[in-house]
Structure to design on (782 residues):
């Protein structure tokens, strides 16, 4: 019996199945796409993204998103951006290749910094964005932001210092051990030299020749004597080389011990600072006061810039090499999905042109219509060939009183990446913030603020500057719950008298080891006032701290320093003595050699033999 | 429990169906693709179409699917390695690059390590599955098939309410 290969009758049910599938897609595509968009965007940006409604418009290859909210990852109760409507015009040819190429993005009804009805979820999971968020949080912790201490001087307790807490004592003990081992090492080195027999035999030869008349030796005897001298001189030369080797070793060791002594002094400075911190003395140093007052708020600004730059590094890598990304979430393992970019083809994601219109209402000087553009935001910058650009500003000519100017360039086209962003806000109501260590809230009022941030080669070079300037500063004292002490009252009085504010924070170095500094006009004012009022008392307290530390470490440090000096002197002296011994006997032998050669050919002056 | 009962009924029904051992085995070999590879992928639509259109045992296909689902989960780490080695092989990079940039082909998710690895794994295993299943079905029918059909246990299972419901939708 011949078995049929095809079941032609099954075509009908199969077509019905496909029809049902198409119907299901038709019915559920929009809610599924909305959920997927929310999920993917949340995962991508590391912050909650909500989409109110999503409409697919297949005939126009467009997607309409309504009521979009992107939460601020750093302030979960606030939206970074809220937009009424976003229309994405997609490239159908790219879509056929499962690539998202947005030919045009129009965004209307955009608002910034709006309050969320429900706080956003904190970035979690092991995706890149949550990891970048955690890394940036960790990164900010390395900045040593001083704490403003305004403890009244009369509350200073007796300083109780435990010697084991002091670094100097630990360093001194370690240096003592090292000095001992160095001394033993040098002693061994001198013993291994064994130049005594060489010097003795050379001296004996010189004495023997001195007592000999070359004329009586004859030609053969003289030649033999010359040979002996040359041989001995060679031995002396070898011994000198050994001494020179030892001398180099001694020099290095002495230098290292010298460094150890310097470290002791540095450790003592640290111990002074530590002991001072126990007393919680108020600081008069303007940079310290600046750091304490504005360190945290400045670092927060740079932290946000660093986070977005990190995301750009991840999502917009340079080059065209295949790149793996985690596969989709499913019951089965996700695996990895590998992208294979192809030159002169569509990248996996590209936003060719984005037009964002927004307006700022009210009576504020910055009210008006604004426009922002985004160009060339892509997952494969090497394919697009140009840096991504983001700009935002007023649509009409900007007023002299108020303006907003925002721009960013993400250049990942070549291996040497460069991300830079700037934001200049002028004539706008600046956000208020608390001053750490002071019961005051600063309301900068209307002023100007600027932030520039630049990151080269994935964080190898960082450059950032945040500046705030206002002439309408208000201070709100928060004295609820506790009584201010005398110093706090003084500082509050000093600060409250100021109507203007200038803060400049600067960031440099690299992501791995950043440098940070902050200065403001408040620092000097507070520093000078504190200096005038409690300067003498603090100086007395500092003197007491120094005396206490000195008394604890002196009997540990001084013997070590003496021992180091003794080893240094002893080693140098011995090397010099050995060198002198060798030079002396070499000189004698050379003199005898000259005498012998004159006897061989009288009247002929031979040059000194150099081996 | 329901799933297990359904599996047993499916096995029994398939083993005692009118299809030849070859048809049952071919159905199982095709159905194993549904179990071994991640289900929600375009290639499985093709597999289902083949199961319907080709004159193979559809029940065998469903049986193959059910039997190989746990195998698929177990072999995921192996599939991941196979997929990764294929996708990162320098000699194959031009091929994957062309496929990635060919319309519709990227929707198969071939560039996912699990999808590619499990699909290749299925291609390799399909032939042994076919021969093993054909031998197994033939041996079963020749040895204990009739005895099982006469047993009380078989009658109890086939007489169960679930089986009756199942029979109503049977082609």
């Amino acid at each position: 019996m011949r078995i049929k290969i095809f079941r032609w009758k099954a075509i009908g049910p199969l077509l019905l199945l496909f029809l049902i599938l198409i119907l299901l897609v038709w019915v559920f595509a929009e809610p599924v796409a909305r959920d997927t968009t929310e999920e993917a965007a949340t995962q991508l940006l590391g912050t909650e993204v909500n989409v109110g409604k999503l409409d697919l418009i297949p005939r126009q290859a467009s997607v309409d998103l309504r009521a979009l909210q992107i939460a601020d990852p750093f302030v979960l109760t606030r939206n970074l951006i809220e937009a009424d409507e976003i229309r994405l015009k997609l490239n159908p040819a790219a879509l056929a290749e499962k690539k998202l190429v947005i030919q045009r993005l129009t965004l209307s009804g955009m608002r910034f910094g709006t309050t969320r009805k429900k706080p956003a979820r904190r970035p979690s999971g092991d995706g890149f964005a949550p990891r970048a968020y955690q890394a940036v949080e960790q990164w900010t912790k390395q900045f040593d932001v001083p704490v403003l201490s305004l403890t009244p001087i009369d509350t200073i307790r007796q300083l109780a210092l435990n010697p084991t807490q002091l670094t100097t004592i630990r360093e001194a003990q370690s240096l003592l051990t090292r000095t001992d081992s160095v001394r033993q090492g040098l002693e061994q080195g001198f013993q291994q030299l064994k130049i005594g027999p060489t010097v003795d035999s050379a001296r004996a030869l010189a004495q023997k020749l001195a007592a000999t008349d070359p004329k009586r030796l004859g030609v053969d005897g003289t030649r033999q004597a010359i040979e002996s001298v040359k041989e001995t001189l060679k031995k002396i030369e070898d011994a000198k080389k050994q001494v020179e080797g030892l001398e180099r070793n001694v020099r290095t060791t002495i230098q290292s011990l010298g460094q150890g002594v310097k470290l002791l002094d540095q450790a003592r400075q640290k111990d002074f600072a530590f002991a001072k911190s126990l007393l919680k003395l108020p600081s008069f140093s303007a940079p310290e006061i600046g750091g304490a007052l504005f360190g945290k708020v400045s670092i927060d600004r740079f932290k946000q810039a660093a986070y977005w730059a990190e995301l750009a590094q991840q999502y917009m890598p340079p080059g065209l090499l295949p790149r793996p990304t985690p596969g989709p979430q499913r019951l089965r393992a996700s695996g990895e999905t590998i992208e294979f970019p192809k030159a002169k083809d569509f990248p996996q994601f590209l936003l060719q042109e984005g037009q964002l219109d927004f307006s700022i209402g009210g009576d504020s000087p910055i009210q008006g219509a604004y426009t922002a553009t985004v160009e060339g935001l892509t997952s494969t910058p090497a394919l697009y060939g140009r840096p991504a650009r983001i700009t935002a500003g007023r649509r009409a000519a900007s007023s002299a009183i108020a303006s907003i100017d925002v721009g960013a360039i993400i250049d990942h086209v070549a291996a040497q990446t460069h991300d830079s962003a700037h934001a200049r806000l002028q004539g706008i109501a600046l956000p208020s913030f608390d001053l750490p260590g002071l019961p005051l809230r600063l309301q900068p009022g209307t002023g100007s603020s600027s932030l520039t941030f630049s990151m080269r080669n994935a964080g190898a070079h960082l450059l950032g500057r945040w500046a705030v300037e206002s002439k309408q500063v208000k201070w709100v004292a928060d004295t609820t719950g506790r009584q201010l002490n005398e110093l706090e009252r003084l500082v509050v009085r000093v600060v409250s008298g100021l109507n203007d504010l200038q803060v400049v924070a600067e960031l440099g170095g690299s992501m791995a080891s950043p440098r940070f500094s902050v200065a403001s006009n408040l620092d000097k004012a507070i520093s000078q006032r504190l200096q005038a009022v409690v300067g003498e008392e603090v100086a007395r307290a500092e003197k007491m701290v120094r005396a206490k530390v000195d008394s604890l470490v002196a009997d540990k440090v001084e013997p070590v320093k003496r021992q180091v000096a003794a080893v240094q002197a002893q080693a140098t002296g011995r090397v010099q003595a050995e060198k002198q011994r060798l030079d002396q006997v070499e000189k004698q032998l050379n003199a005898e050699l000259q005498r012998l050669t004159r006897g061989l050919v009288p009247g002929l002056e031979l040059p000194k033999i150099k081996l | 429990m329901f799933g297990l009962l359904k599996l047993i009924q499916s096995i029994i029904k398939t083993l005692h169906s009118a299809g030849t051992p070859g048809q049952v085995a071919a159905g199982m070999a095709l159905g194993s693709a549904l179990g071994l590879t991640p289900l929600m992928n375009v290639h499985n639509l093709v597999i289902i179409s083949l199961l319907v259109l080709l004159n193979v045992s559809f029940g065998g296909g469903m049986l193959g699917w059910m039997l190989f689902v746990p195998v698929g989960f177990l072999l995921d780490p192996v599939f991941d390695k196979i997929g990764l080695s294929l996708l990162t092989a320098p000699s194959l990079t031009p091929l994957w690059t062309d496929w990635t940039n060919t319309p519709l082909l990227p929707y198969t998710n071939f560039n996912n390590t699990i999808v590619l690895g499990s699909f290749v794994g299925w291609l390799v295993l399909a032939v042994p599955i076919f021969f093993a299943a054909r031998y197994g079905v033939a041996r079963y029918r020749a040895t204990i098939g009739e005895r099982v059909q006469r047993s009380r246990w078989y009658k109890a299972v086939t007489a169960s309410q679930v089986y009756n419901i199942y029979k109503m939708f049977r082609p």
Summary: Chain B touches chain A through 39 residues (CB under 8 Å). Chain B has a mean pLDDT of 86.
